[in-house]
Amino acid sequence: MKYTTAGESHGPEEIAVIEGIPAGLHITQEDVDFELARRQRGYGRGERQKIETDTVTFLTGVRHQETLGSPITLNVHNDDHNNWSKIMAPNAPATSENTLRKVLRPRPGHADLVGGIKYRHHDDLRNVLERSSARETTMRVAVGAVAKKLLAEIGVDVHGFVVNVGPAKSNLNELTKYKSLQELRNVTEGFETRALNQEADDAIREVIDKTKRDANTVGGQVQVIATGMPVGIGSYVSADDKLDGKIARAIVGINAFKGVQFGGGFDNAEKYGDQVMDEIFWDKDKGFYRGSDNLGGFEGGMTTGEAIVVRGVVKPIPTLYRPMQSVDIDTHEDHKASIERSDTTAVTAAAVIAEAMVAIELAKAVLDKFDADSIERMKEQVAVYRAEVKAF
């Protein structure tokens, strides 16, 4: 399985093409639209979410709500393009009228300046920000929706939520009271902040409100948990084959993500071996299992069968309504950075995007190991493999 996305932030369309999804997977527009709506919701999002209502159209690869085994093309129309059609016109030459919204003062922390230098966009850094914008993650969530449908066929569930926004935190000790990800999902999706309880929701809202009043932005952390993955997916043979390594790359590849950890992560650096290693047990009914999950479901780059636990660090959004120091690329004079329409925080949306990226990497790994032509044959092979693992 592989995919690519295309489209600019204020362009007419966002597009993704997925190759390698088996034939026979039941998928509907509503399945994808549901995930797209989750991405758009969240406390701290900006005005654009009131303009756009993201809905997907299947252009290829799906017939009668079933995948064909051929490339799947997903399309999401940008409603906001109506306000930018002249500025983003691909077939009209640049004029004084259609280049009114030039970006000449790069934002600290954004791709503006480095991208302009790299691609020689001397005249307008909008050529950078239109693609580097997190609007592109719309299509990653759409691809993730397809991946989640595939994973559900073999009993794998994936869910993301917010750990903290600035100093306001969820109490992760509460995770132990949930018997399934669906129970956890019912709670976190009930809060606009995707927090674990009302107290954390109130605290996070307070931080976001204050940040907005201060014309500032704020970051945080999100966590993704996946259950039901078969044992031994991934490999220790080569660094490129380690599944946790692939997931780490996918998480840090999301706009504004600056760190990733598995299980106890960085806290494990302050502990001793007997506090970190997940002891091994055996039971006649379920075979080998671990007594804890400090390593986040991975050993040697392979899944252990325990819950996969991934956390990502999201930096504050670079666009501040109280802009920071910058330099005009045309005159080289000191100026405040450009201001583009933005969110106070995107951490609530980042939980959904991180969830999608984990699902994509898990789906890729499953399809690397099992049949990728037919969904029914894949399920048969997974069932046989699970039985083999249990009998080991």
TrEMBL record:
This is Chorismate synthase. One of its GO terms (cellular component) is cytosol. Its EC number is 4.2.3.5. It is an enzyme of class 4 (lyase). The lineage of its organism: Bacteria, Bacillati, Bacillota, Bacilli, Lactobacillales. The keyword Amino-acid biosynthesis applies. GO terms for biological process: amino acid biosynthetic process; aromatic amino acid family biosynthetic process; chorismate biosynthetic process. This reaction introduces a second double bond into the aromatic ring system. It comes from the Bacteria. InterPro entries: Chorismate_synth, Chorismate_synth_AroC_sf, Chorismate_synthase_CS. Belongs to the chorismate synthase family.
